[in-house]
Amino acid sequence: MNMSTREAYGRALAKYGKEHEFFVLDADLAKATQTIFFKNEFSDRFFDIGISEGDMMTTAAGMASCDKKVFASTFAIFAAGRAYEQVRNSIAYPNLPVVIGATHGGVMIGEDGASHQAIEDISLMRTMPNMTVVVPCDAESVTQIVEQSISLKSPMYLRTGRGASQDIYTNGEKIVIGKGNVLCDGCDLTIIAIGDLVAQALEAAKILATEGVSVAVIDMHTVKPIDTDLITKYAKKTKFIITAEDHSIIGGLGSAVAEILAETQDAKLKRLGVNDTYGKSGTRDALQKYFNLTAEGIISLYKANC
Q: What mean pLDDT comes out for the span 52-73?
């Protein structure tokens, strides 16, 4: 039904809150982050810390240090930016079981503009020791990741988007933290994507197939720890990889894959993402086209370098 991943996050919290005892914190954005679904069901386990993201992270850390599972939610720009020091020193450094539910990631959040478009958050979180970084592509993958994260004994950065995401997992497929999912196989090109760019990768693969190009598409939902074995396998198989993400090409998925290929030298790599610039205000569709975060963008990158 093409639900937004942030809504899926809120609904998953409410769903699993019936089966597990955990706490949810928010920073005056429950309706936007969709933690309102949990609040409405479990008000005694929900705390609104107010517009004080650093305080929220240290509060989450304090609760987690007392053997409580905590989800701390706000916009990605605030979770990774404003509260960076608290996440680093209070959550990641002591390796506490806090899930940072970061919504509104990337330029495709639309009209909020550059000040609210987190394009460096994956990079910031990926470099923290102990931190798992996950960017699901649809509602089903979010639901499965939230369920798995409840038993995780270390911190996680879970990034979701604002607008409706195309349903990708509709046939009971399993999502496992740390393992990429091959959505279609191919031998000429591998597209490794995260978030909303997974749907664009599948569309690009479909178009290229009509031109005789065999394309594999991998949903690399877990950017850290990344599935090195799967990347290496497809680098050797297709010899050409394109990464696609709604994030800066510096430090995110593209960089994570490049680090692996720099050591193995098994394939050519090209990165599709926000090219070292800030976002703009506009509709989601307009920004997606402006930044070339489309199937056509993937195809153009392939044709210019094949």
A: 98
